[in-house]
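User
Class, as today's exercise, I want you to study this protein, comparing sequence with structure tokens, and judge whether sequence predicts the tokens.
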Amino acid sequence: MIVKQSTRDYAETLSRLIAAIERRGLTVFARIDHAAGARAAGMELADEEVVLLGNPRSGTPLMQADPTVGIELPLRVLVWRGPDAVLLGYRDPRMLDGSYELAANRETLEQMGALLDSLLSEAAG
């Protein structure tokens, strides 16, 4: 996992991430608030949310090349409150080439990796 430390608080980091995604015309497919789920179950968990994002124009060709890569898509960013800082992380999509038949889509994977790095940098401040 590639991890960046935010210079912002949790709420602002998450807000900046969503704004950065939307500014690029990408879709936020879902937000999974793990902390809210824990509270609903009567348990405690520090702030933690997964944001699922992407663009079907990028992901669909990958799934056309190898339908099983669909388990990895859409892209995901995890935002969580660590003991000393707010952190953001993602699994590098460039690594998917080794697990799936995506050799012809290497450029798309590179672009996805660069996009995620840019989004995290912007959100982290």
